[in-house]
């Protein structure tokens, strides 16, 4: 799951046409990055979902971090006004070796996305890292 950080700011400060341009920019970068490795979808509002059927969680997180950095690297302008850098928060979930329903996969990715946003945005969070942090696994006293 991918969410454009502080998206409402673009609409409020620069107008809905600027917001549309930001979404098209992010969508275009996602589509270019996905290529033949998967599919990208608008999930709703300023949220997107990418499915990478042949990637595990670690590979997906590495891929997502590269995409996050690419999106952040480009400063956008609209009708002569500098919009600044666009950032995204990304939540990753994978099916692993067990079977998981699509609804549970999306819910896990969405939970990871919400934590990425709560922890400051402009970052990638995996469902397994979220689970490890919530159970205390891997933490030292």
In short:
This protein is of the alpha+beta class and 141 residues long. It is built from five helices and seven strands.
Description:
The protein is of the alpha+beta class and 141 residues long. It has a single domain (2-135), classed as Alpha-Beta Plaits. Helix content is 50%, strand content 22%. The chain has 5 helices and 7 strands. The strands form 2 sheets. A 5-stranded mixed sheet has the order 2-3-1-6-7. It has a two-stranded antiparallel ribbon with strand order 4-5. 27% of the residues are buried. The mean pLDDT is 90.
Beta-strand proportion: 15-25%
What separation lies between the terminal Cα atoms? 32 Å
Low-confidence stretches: none
What is the CATH superfamily classification? Reverse transcriptase/Diguanylate cyclase domain
Summarize the amount of helix as a percent range.
40-55%
Give the SSE layout:
Blueprint: E1 2-4, H1 7-14, H2 16-34, E2 39-44, E3 47-51, H3 57-73, E4 75-78, E5 81-85, E6 88-92, H4 102-118, E7 124-126, H5 127-135
Helix pairs in contact: 1-2
